[in-house]
Structure formats: C-alpha cells, structure tokens
Amino acid sequence: MKKRIFIGVVLLVVVFGALASLLSAAVVSGVSMDQLSRHLSEEARLIQQRIQGQEVLDALKGLATPSRVTYIQPDGKVLFDNQAEDIEENHMDRPEVRQALETGLGKAVRYSRTVKSLTVYLAVRLEDGSVLRLAAPERAARQIVSGIAPLIVFGMIILVLLSLPVIHYFSARLLRPLLSIDLEHPEDARVSEELLPLIRRIDAQNRQSAVQMAALAARQQELDALLGGMHEGFIALGGQDEVILVNASACAMLGTEKEMALGRRMPEINRSPAMLEVLEKLRTSGSAEGMLEKDGRSYFISASRLEDPRGAVMLFSDQTDKVQGEAMRKRFTGNVSHELRTPLTTILGYAEMLEKGMVKEEDLRQFYHLIHKESSRMLALVEDILRLSRLDEGYLNGKHEKVSLYETAKAACQSLELFASEKSVRLNFSGTEAFVLGDATLLGELCSNLIDNAIKYNKQNGSVRVSVNGGPQIVLIVEDTGIGIAPEHQPRVFERFYRTDSSRSKATGGTGLGLSIVKHAAEYHHGKITLKSRVGEGTAITVVFPAYQEDA
Predict the structure, then answer these.
(1) Is the separation of the CB atoms in 319 and 253 below 8 Å?
(2) For residue range 272-293, what is the model confidence (pLDDT) as tens digits?
(3) One CATH from 3.90.550.10, 1.10.260.30, 3.30.450.40, 1.10.287.130 for 323-388
C-alpha cells in the first residue's frame, strides 16, 4: 500500500510538472514572438534613421542585417529585397503591407513562400508613401524555446527528485498508524479515532480464528498421531483419485515423498497393473483388494469407496515376509521331500533285495556299503537342515567370544587335507593372525563348507588357496581352480538346495545346503560375502568380517 501511494503521488507530481513545463513553453513561445516583433520594430526604426537624407535603395543595399528587408512602392511593386532577387509579384495583397498603407504600421505572422517558413512580418509606411517591410522566421522564436527547453526539463527532474523525500515522508507518516498495528494484539495499538472500527474488527476476527485454529490443530495432532503411528500405509483419495491425505508408511512403500504425492492422481504416483486394477475395481464395485509388487517387496492393498464426502481410502500392509516365508516353506518342503526320498528309496530297494535273497554272497559287502553311504548322506542332510533351522531362529545358543579366524581356517584345512589328497587337489593355506567376535563352531563350519566345496568341484591336479588377512577388517578368501560357476547361476548359489549341476552335485555327495549355511553364518557374524567365478577357470569366495575390538 505504501508503495502504491508513493508511486501514485510521484506520478501526480510528474504529470503536473509536465503540464507546468508545457505551459511554460507556451508562455515562453508567446513572449519570444513578442520579443521578435519588438526587435523588428526597433530594427525598422534604425533603418528609417539611416535612410533619411539618402537614396533609399543605396542605403538599403549596404545594409547588414539578419532580417529580411523588403522595399515596396505604394502600388505594391517590390523595388528591393535583401534575400530574394527579381520579385515580380505585387505585394499589395500582403496583409501587413495593406495595414501599413492604411495605418502607418502593419504586422502579420504567416507562411512565406519565398523563404518557405513561418515568418513574422513588420511593415512601416515611409514619408513618400512607400513601405519598408522587415521579416524574421518564426524558428528564431522556436530556437529560444529550444534553448530553454533543457532548463525546463532539468527543472522538472529537480522538482521530482526534491519531491521524492517529501512524498516518502508524508506517505510513511500516513501509513505509520496502520503499520504499527500488531495483528496479534490490535487492541494495544495507538491509532486515530477513524481506525478504531478496524481495530475492533481485527480483534474480533483474531478471537474467532484462534478458537478455530485450536480446534483444527487438536484434530490435526490426533490425525497425525494416528496415521504416523501406523505401520500400514494409508491414503485418502478425492473424487478424481487425487491424493488428499497420505502417511509416511505409504510414501515409503510407494517410493515417493509426501509433498510430491499430495494433489497428484494415484495413477501418476504408481501405474503398475496391480494398482490400476485396484482403482478400476474401486470405481465399479466400491471396494477392491490386490497385491502390489515393488522393489522386491509385496504389499497387500485394501480399498473402499466413500460416498460422503466423495472419495476413497486405501490401506497398504507389507506382506513380504509372509509371502516369502510361504514360498520358502513350499520350496523347502518340496526340496526336503525330494532330497530325503532319493536316499530312502535307494536304501529301501537295497534292503528289499537283501531281504528276498536276491543278492549274491560276493555282492553283499557292496550292497552294505551303498546302504551305509546313502544313510550317511541322509544323516548329513538332516544335520544340515537342523543347522539351518537353528540359524533361522537366530542361533540362540551361539557364543560371542574372541575367536582366531586364522587358527579356525587353518584347522579346517588340516582336517580336509586327506580329502584333498584323495581328489588330487593341492591345498595351500596362508595368512596372518586375525580375531573376530563370534562362535568358533559356526566359523569352523563356514570355513569347512567353503574349503570342502572348493575341493569337491575342482579339477584333477587342481589347487585350492585359503588365506586369512587381518587389519581393520578381517578377510577370508577361498580360491580354487575348479569348474567355475556360470554367471546366470552365481546370484542363486547361496539358496537352499540350489545346484548348478544336480547330477554332479549328488555324485560328489553334497546336500545343497553348504553355501546356504555359509551365508547364514556370515550374517550371524555381520560378515559380507562376495563371489567371483569364471567357467572353467575357478571360483573365489571372499568373506569380510569386522575385526574384534577389545571393548566389544
């Protein structure tokens, strides 16, 4: 408001200054014309004095003057003109000439065809009845006005500049009472009587707004506490499926932010087929359910349409663990059933043959060996399943003590030296002393499983290199020159019962759970596993553990 008042008054000053300047220019123009006329009169008087007692034409020919001088006979014939030659046109019709012949003095301002400009004329009748006429172009007056025009413009600028602080002062003084009003406490303001109704109105509105804002804040706090404390995602939609309310859990599930979600239509936030299907069912039937898959997680969606006000609500619940657990249980049950059925079927078949006396005496030892082998394989499978079950439950009986990973890996190598020798594989161990916080038995199983796999899936006359290095982080590396793992199998080798080559794995006596136990054991010790492998060249598995801290 202050700015508008200031600008308005400045414009008013500029307008009036411009009008005053134009008026001044008009006055100066009139005065200039009058001065020009007086100048011509004075010049005519001087010329009259000069030609007294002389021949008029001779006196005029030697005259030096910027004005146009014309000598005209009483019949209108031009005898002399200092700015034109051989003027044959009769000048009796010139108004200043006629007036001079009648009254002795004539004046006129008109356009001159001879000099082609607006001209001021002054004509004087001489004693012999002839007429002496002087003329000066009107641009001389304009030049005077042009000469003072910069002064007028400069004066107007000075006027505006000088008026600025005055305008600023008075506008500030005018608005000071309004600006001094504290909108939170208007009753404390000292204002003129004219502003008292405004003060009372503001005070009344403040009281009403305070009551309404307190009620809204209380409701908002309740709503924020309710929605913020929900683990489930909550979204309220308007009539056009635009988001009008959303909690943090829903934003995290949909991978967006609250500020970006509010006001946008739901398909703009998530255009997955599952979401679009839920919204379509919601429009047609008033309620809908669906399962949304996003970033590897599964969210159950439950939506209901509201009639008053028109809109809908959507609830999202994270069912990832449930879905994955069910899938894992199905796979695990199927795999366990399959893995146990094979050795049991073999044992049952051999036992039947022995029971019915279908085996020759010399083959009995071989049959007993096969039954023992399959029984041992089944027992190893059951033991691995029990280990995994304990690890899934958090390995509650596990220890947290200082363990030398160097000695643990070295002991695992020593226990598998005979197995490596039978497989014609060279087993090398190196490293430095390194300690981790954990369970010695579980770390031993981790090392044994990695080394055992490296020996089993190696080549004839291949090698296995095991190293342990200490430092800020403890690094265990088991590297072999074996058959390697194809890139498409590498992400899944740590899954339970996953085999890259089922027939070869069974031939080596593996249960398919070794690397899964390694993965769970590493997680128990906060370790990270990386695998690098090339088919036909070998595999290197690295496990990085946090180093043991004395104050841990």
Answers:
(1) no
(2) 999 999 999 988 888 899 988 8
(3) 1.10.287.130
Listing DSSP states for 79-110 in one string gives: EEETT-S---S--TT-HHHHHHHHHSEEEEEE
Contacts of 394 (CB under 8 A, 6+ apart): none
- Choose among 79, 76, 139, 85: nearest CA to 114: 85
Q: How far is CA 431 from the centre of its chain?
A: 51
The answer to whether residues 381 and 513 touch, using CB atoms and an 8 Å cutoff, is yes
**Per-residue pLDDT tens for 124-161?**
888 888 888 888 877 655 655 565 667 667 777 777 77
The torsion angles phi and psi of 432, rounded to 5 degrees, stand at -130, 165
428 pLDDT higher than 90: yes
Q: What stretch of H or E contains 522? A: helix 514-524
Contact 306, 236 (CB under 8 A): no
- Name the pTM for this structure: 0.41
Cβ within 8 Å of residue 73, ≥6 positions away: 79, 130, 131
481 and 459 Cβ atoms separated by less than 8 Å: yes
pLDDT digits (tens, 9 = 90+) for 30-46: 666 777 778 888 888 88
Cβ atoms of residues 538 and 392 within 8 Å: no
Average predicted confidence (pLDDT) for the chain? 79
- Give the list of residues 6+ apart from residue 322 with CB closer than 8 angstroms, or none: 298
Residue that has been written with the tokens 């506490």 in this structure: 225
Residue 25 in this model has a pLDDT that exceeds 70: no
In this structure, are residues 272 and 255 in contact, taking their beta carbons and an 8 Å threshold?
A: no
Task: Tell me the two tokens of residue 436.
Answer: 């981790």
The secondary structure of residue 548, as a DSSP letter, is: P
Instruction: List where CATH 3.30.450.20 sits in the chain.
Output: 2-146, 229-318
Average pLDDT of the segment spanning 259-282? 89
d(CA 353, CA 402): 53
pLDDT of residue 511: 57
What dotted CATH number matches 394-546? 3.30.565.10
Output b/e per residue, 165-194; b: 16+ Cβ within 10 A. Answer: eebeeebeeeeeeeeebeeeebeebeeeee
Q: Which CATH architecture has domain 229-318?
A: 2-Layer Sandwich (3.30)
508 or 242: whose pLDDT is higher? 242
Q: Which residues contact 486 (CB under 8 A, 6 or more apart)?
A: 500, 535
Q: pLDDT at position 505, please?
A: 47
